[in-house]
Fold this sequence. Notes:
By secondary structure, chain B is mainly beta. In chain B, 12% of the residues lie in helices and 41% in strands. Chain B has helices spanning 2-15, 55-71, 96-101, 148-164, and strands spanning 28-32, 40-43, 48-49, 75-77, 106-115, 118-127, 132-133, 139-144, 173-180, 187-194, 201-202, 210-215, 221-226, 233-238, 243-246, 254-260, 266-273, 276-283, 289-291, 299-304, 310-315, 322-327, 333-335, 342-348, 354-361, 364-371, 378-379, 386-391, 397-403, 411-417, 424-425, 431-437. Chain C has a domain at 232-254 and 262-372: Fusion Protein Consisting Of Minor Coat Protein, Glycine Rich Linker, Tola, And A His Tag, Chain: A, Domain 2. At the A-C interface, helix 1 of A face helix 1 of C.
Amino acid sequence: MSGLTKVILVVSALGLAACDNLTGGSGNSTDLNSAGAGSVADQTSAAYFQQEIGDRVLFVVNQSTLTTQAEGVLLSQANWLLANTDYTATIEGHADEQGTREYNLALGARRANAAREYLVSRGVAGNRIKVLSYGKERPLEICSDESCYSQNRRAVTILTGGLTG
Amino acid sequence: MRVFLTGVLFAAALLAPAGAVVAQNGPLRIEITDGVIEPLPYAVPSFIAETASANELSAQIARVVASDLSGTGLFREIPASAHISKVTDFNAQVQYADWKAVNAQALITGAVSVNGNRLTVRFRGYDVFADKELDGGGLQFTGTTDGWRRMAHKVADTIYSRITGEGGYFDSRVVYVSENGPKNDRRKRLAIMDYDGANVQFLTNSASIVLAPRFSPSGDRVLYTSYESGFPQIHVMDIGKVQRRVLSTDDGIMSFAPRFSPDGRTVVYSQSQGGNTDLFTMDINSGKLTRLTSAPSIETAPSFSPDGSQIVFESDRSGSQQLYVMAATGGDARRISHGKGRYGTPVWSPRGDLLAFTKQNKGRFHIGVMRTDGSEERLLTASFLDEGPTWSPNGRVIMFTRETQGANGRALLYSVDISGRNLKPVRTPDGGSDPAWSPLQN
Amino acid sequence: MQTGIKISLTAHVGLMGWVVFGAWFPSEPLPFQVQQVTMISNAEFALLSQQHTAPEIAADPAVLATPQEDTPLPEVAAQSDAEPETVVPEPIVPPAPEPELSERPEPEPAPTPAPQAPEPPSLPEIATVVPETAEPQVAQPADRVAPVPIAPPAPDTTVDEIVQPEIAPDEGAETQQEVQEATAPEAANDRIVTEAEQQDEQASIAPTQSLRPKTRPRRPTPPETTVDTATPNEPVEQPVETTEDAVADAVAEALAGGGDVIAPEPSGPPLTSGEKDALRISVSSCWNVGSLSTEALGTTVVVGVSLSQEGKPDAGTIRMLSSTGGSSTAAKQAFEAARRAIIRCGAKGFQLPPEKYGQWRDIEMTFNPERMRIK
């Protein structure tokens, strides 16, 4: 299944008409929980944040420590948030299905917090970033192997303010 | 030696009264150590309808009794087609020989009458091979006709208890999370049903995620975690009125995994702040919070001992999920799980002697039981994903969630006897997870 | 913005095209049925909840909240707290003494229904779809645990405690011959096999797994045959009780005036250990602890019984002499299971040497379930 089809599936399933989002061709960057606003061309838009900066970082099994790659993404997020002070953010932590429900909830919280602490360490004001965990309740990919699990072990930064594109 | 023995025997013989020609050795003594473990065969002929309007219910009640007893895996029904004698008079002497002939070791007879919406069920149980009634004699339940299933469960509970010597569990309910839809768009709502899957009733709609409900000790309220506010918070619902309220507290602090204390006055739960999850208790009336743990690790999935003095929980303070026991007031905790793999979701048995838990090892999940000091671990199940055990009110059966693998995976409720026998799915209209068993109903 | 509009248009056309044509192209079937649970209206939701008004079970109608038809939230009547009335019905006239059991025509045991999984409760009102699980379901090998594992019998063999060869009617025979169905002992494992253990055993076959040393070789054991053939090839040895026991017994016997029981029936020498074993195995095969509570499984009971000269237990003499390890309730359940074992397996008479009747007329059987406990 091509990335585009996947995007369409997700979009039609959710019934979201977030048309401006359909760029980049990467299914992974379409967020389930919020529709980014504005054009990707607009560097101050939520869409730009999602697509170009990257709104998520991934984790290894049972871990909440940030990989070098994750730190790179978060550094860009921090710089963007410092430049676009209208926005606040909620970081959602997730786990794969290979764990018990309540532990995974706590693990998701740990991951979200790891991302938050990095942003704060780079100068983003702590009161702009909230954390929330969904544990294993909201997987993005649904297969039962590592290719999906690695995408589900994530912390996603959702912009919650300044939705003016 | 031989000489000595003979001498003593001779002396003993001399002590015997005159006339004793043959001295017996007393009763023959043998020791039986190897038995069989198999379901006990029983018969439950259709109950006698004492009023014309009771025709249907009299048959249905007997069927529910049979379903309860056979469903335990401890009993096996002799089908009606094999019965030799028919029971037509509730007060007449039963023909033991006819029931022995079909190897029915227990027999249950009953009579049902209906007047308006009043239902009366009378029943007796027999120990066929002892040619007598089970101790306790006949009993009678009265109620409304719409409660007929509960009355059947009460009959079965009585019989079960008289034969096995432990309390029954049929007149009980299960609160669980009803699940619908694909894995990446799972709709969850709180549901309650009879232990056997009958009478399902939904307590919430599926607008927000709900997790891990637990009954209050009296069975009238349910604690659960809901994302209704967009944030996981603890809710308590009055089942009778289907009214709910939020118990916790600060916005921005996730709270989850709530369980009642045995007296119903305190809730122990997890609170997650700054990425660290710890255990707290809350006085349900005053709202007063007490912190129980303060490690930088994850502490969650608590469960009170039945006497309320201790709490078992899971923690990854050692580096991986393991089980710990501490006083209900907090303080030092003692690790009790030492096997290979990760251990979580400990639940204290209502009898107090065992803990049920989820174990992950080599990519598979197990439901297991161990003694409360961690010894005598036994794994009862194995699958792609089993988790979240809950105990039947008598501590004999465990219900849990089994999720199947893959993109089409779905969650179903299963139950298993603590011997590891009788593993089977519990019928629910949709998928189901996170079951919690109620105490026996009044 | 231009780019955005173009992309938007493309995507819309694509989306519409997919919606319109997608279904016509042979494609993977949707892997799941999406149920729009949110489409349930308030009324439907209320109805769903209301039809399960908690039943009242009590003599006097307790306060029963009536479901409110028009409230948006489903109203469920409170559970009635009242204890259901349990009235002991008219006492039954004590059963007239049954005619001697042995006088009844000995009924052939009816074909025991094959052990089958307990039927799930029939719940016609709930449309239940229990989907096939992806995993291969491993069938429980046998629903019975016995001291000696028994391979499943041929399909049409009647399950019976006594193994009997099939006797087909002889066509040319002059004399009437009783048709006898072949019987075999019921299939059994020698222990409880949990799912976790089954999977372990399966896994150990797989070459990818490191082999775990299995302590339980599962070789097929030939079915244990009838009790009277079970032992003769064992070296027969006299039951050698310890000296003290023998002395104590003899002294006790003498003091108790055991000698006044001048057996009119043959007493003979003491039973050989083979003869004792035969009796022990015979009772064992009927001693079913499968329906005992875990506490009763920790209770040892000593049961006394007297046998007739045909080896049949006199049910009236079966009594509990002592118990250890459990409450009186547990002891009672344990005793009842023991009593059933003695009566059932003794119904046709235990196989004991008639010339030694005096030795086995009175028996004390200790039922020790330690090895049968759930472990």
